[in-house]
Each structure stands twice: as structure tokens, then as C-alpha cells.
Amino acid sequence: MHLHILGICGTFMAGIAALAREAGHRVTGSDANAWPPMSTQLQAQGIELMSGYAPEHLQPAPDVVVVGNVITRGNPAIEYVLDQGLPYVSGPQWLAEHVLAGRHVLAVAGTHGKTTTSSLLAWLLDNAGLEPGFLIGGVPMNFGISARLGAGKYFVVEADEYDTAFFDKRSKFVHYRPRTCVLNNLEFDHADIFPDLASIERQFHHLIRTVPRSGRLIVNGADANLARVLEMGCWSETEYFDADSGWHATETDGGFELHQGERNHGAVTTPMAGLHNRSNALAAIAAAAHLGVLPRQAADALSRFRNTRRRLELRGEARGVQVYDDFAHHPTAIRVTVDALLRQAGGRVLAVLEPRSNTMRLGSHQAELSDSLSQADVCFVYARPDLKWNAQAALASLADKLHVAATLDQLVAAVVHEARPTDRILVMSNGDFGGVHQKLLDALSTSGQT
């Protein structure tokens, strides 16, 4: 079968492409933008990428067109699909029908931590010999790929609440029908499609409705919004993490003591920094336990976990200054990421933020950003041309530590001028940020030379 994927370089759709290719299908795809790690991963798998959305990409006609949720009416390719009556399907529906059917699905949902928790859960199951399949919105460094079919009956999927496609406005995760479902946390996000928090809570409850009575929910016991969702109705066994009655942790040097209610499972060593990652680890350990993975077995695997790319990933060092990359693009994620880096030994933290997501560009979170960035020693914000709010005015409370740049060149110059040996530059964006990481490393390398 020949699949052509529209929007193939998005993290989710790239995973669909990889799974289809592994299953023996011919896969091609179109996208307006392509950047690593997804573009390089696809090319390495022999998947043909086409730039733009020309109708000619669909000639001769593929057997099915898989439509990403970035595709809207008016897109030349989708207009051609509709005019010609070509078969089309959303990515989540294709996944559900061709990969997830008949398998024990472990879905990880939540506003934050989905990628890390999904990656960790897949690693815990793989370490236990269960050979899971997975589809993750990033590249787990333990595996080097974002998706695989797996040999076992288990499949781990990062379960996103964003809408499915232009013709299916339900959240993607309602397609997955999990038997084990992790609910990490819940906050307002995606202001471009959700009018308020209550509408997102309703989608999360739709997910809960799909979990069978014999399944299990793994729920953040410290999240009041999730508690409100469960009050709408729950029909499955429920276990909690970050709650004294369920899975919880007490901090130690280099890790934490793992507890399950009153039972102490001993010390756990983790390479992941930050309290948020401790919560992610608890969620993954609890979910793996549903499949019989023993806590000590999970703890051993956790000590060898390498996280995913773009999660506090050290991209390089120049003239004694380290440059980190992180996907953080929500105020809560920004705050905990800055905190996690501060908890590691080192010099000052220079936060560099691109407000790139639809929600960020619309300004829905501008009132919370100052607090999120306040722990950083110096803050640099890229005022993109499409930003709908005044970054200088909205973040004025940061006072002298704030620097707003209108262009990438100005941004790089300002950061390099400020940076000094032992500093750590933390770059945060949910896109490629114009390759600013390498621009910073190159500029740092040449700064001060005559």
C-alpha cells in the first residue's frame, strides 16, 4: 500500500510514517517545513520528502492520504484530495486501525511531561523484555527513533489532546482506546482550539470514558484539575502518584526513595533533573507495574534512562559556555525547566525564549511568563514578527534582567555579549528557532578573537 502523508515532518506524523514504513508500506510525504530530528529520521528510513503541498505530489494517486492536523481547508493538496475523491484518513485513526487494534495500549496524556513519561515507560517495558511498540513526540535517546511497531502485545503512545484533523475536531487521544492510561497533569493550553480550561477537561473525560473497567488509570494525585475531571465519572481502577496514598517519593542525593503507600521500595537513582521529572518517573513506574514490572526492576532501568532529544539536551559548549536545548513552551514547563537547570551545579542560567506556539503567539499566557522566567539570571525573548502582544511591556517586571530582540541576529549578539565562562544558556522553543543553538555556539567560538 502507498501512503502519502500531508504534514509528515510533525513529530506525530513522522512517527506514523516510520510505523507504516516498518510495516512494509511505501511511504511518501509533503510538508511546508522540515527540520531535525524528524526530517533526518525520515530520510534515514528511505521515506521521500516533498517540499510544499503541490497537487502533483499526489500523482499518481496513492492508496490513501493520511492528513495531519496542520492541514486546513484551502491547502492545495487537500483541495485536490477532495476534488478527486481520493481516500483520506487522519493520523490517529490510521494508527488506531492499523497498529493499535488488538494490542494493550498504554497512553500518556497531560499538558506537560508526555514525551518524557512515554519515553521512560517504553524504556522500562523494553528493559523488562516486553518489546513494546511506541509512538512518541520526540526521539528517546535510548532507542534513537520516535516510533517502532515492537514485537510484543504492548504499545506506548504519547496521547495528545490537540484536535485530530480539519474534519475531526475531537482530541487525538480519543482514538487510542488505552487499557493503561496515565494522566500527568492538566492546565489550560492550545488557546487556538480550546476556549477555556473546562473544554479541555471535557476532552480528558472523553478519554477516561474509553478506558475499560478492567483497565487502569494512573493519575497525578496533586492535580486539582484532574480531580475535577474524575468527578465527572470514572469506571476503571485508579492509582495515584504524587500522593501519600499511592506512588510517591522522598528526595535523596542523586535520586529519591520510592514509596507505594506505606511500602518503601528503596532508593532510586535518576539522571533526570527537576521535580517534574521525578513525577514523570513515578507515573512511568506506576504504569509499568500494571503490566507486572517490579519496582526494583523499573528503578534499575531508570538509572540508565537517557531521556529524549530536546529535553534539557546539551547541544554544545564554546569558550566555557554551555548551550542547552529544551522544548518548553508553556509557562509551567518554562518554570520547571529553569528550576531543573538551576538545581544542577554550574554558573548562571541565561534563559532564551521563543514564544512560538499558537497559544504563546496569541498572548494567552503572557501574564504568567514573568514569574516563569524570574528564576533565570538573565532573560532573552525573541519578539517574533507574528507575536500578538508586546513582550517588553508584558515582561516589564523582570526589569534589568530582560532583553527583547526583534531579530535572531540581535538576539544572538545580545546573548553572546552577556555570556561569560561557566554560564549555561537555556534555549526554549517548540520549533527549530531558526537554528539559534548553533548560531550561538558559532558566535561564542569566535567572540573575542581578533
Automatic annotation (TrEMBL):
Cofactor(s) listed: Mg(2+)
Reaction(s) this enzyme catalyzes, per UniProt: UDP-N-acetyl-alpha-D-muramate + L-alanyl-gamma-D-glutamyl-meso-2,6-diaminopimelate + ATP = UDP-N-acetyl-alpha-D-muramoyl-L-alanyl-gamma-D-glutamyl-meso-2,6-diaminopimelate + ADP + phosphate + H(+)
Entries under Pfam families matching the protein: Mur_ligase (PF01225), Mur_ligase_C (PF02875), Mur_ligase_M (PF08245)
Entry's Gene Ontology molecular function annotations: UDP-N-acetylmuramate-L-alanyl-gamma-D-glutamyl-meso-2,6-diaminoheptanedioate ligase activity
Protein name listed in UniProt: UDP-N-acetylmuramate--L-alanyl-gamma-D-glutamyl-meso-2,6-diaminoheptandioate ligase
Pathway named in the protein's UniProt entry: Cell wall biogenesis; peptidoglycan recycling
EC number: 6.3.2.45
Domain Mur ligase N-terminal catalytic positions: 2-99
The organism's place on the tree of life at top rank: Bacteria
Annotated family: Belongs to the MurCDEF family. Mpl subfamily.
HAMAP family in the record: Mpl
Keywords from the UniProt entry: ATP-binding, Cell cycle, Cell division, Cell shape, Cell wall biogenesis/degradation, Ligase, Magnesium, Nucleotide-binding, Peptidoglycan synthesis
Domain Mur ligase C-terminal: 310-431
Physiological role: Reutilizes the intact tripeptide L-alanyl-gamma-D-glutamyl-meso-diaminopimelate by linking it to UDP-N-acetylmuramate.
Binding site for ATP: 110-116
Every Mur ligase central domain range: 108-288
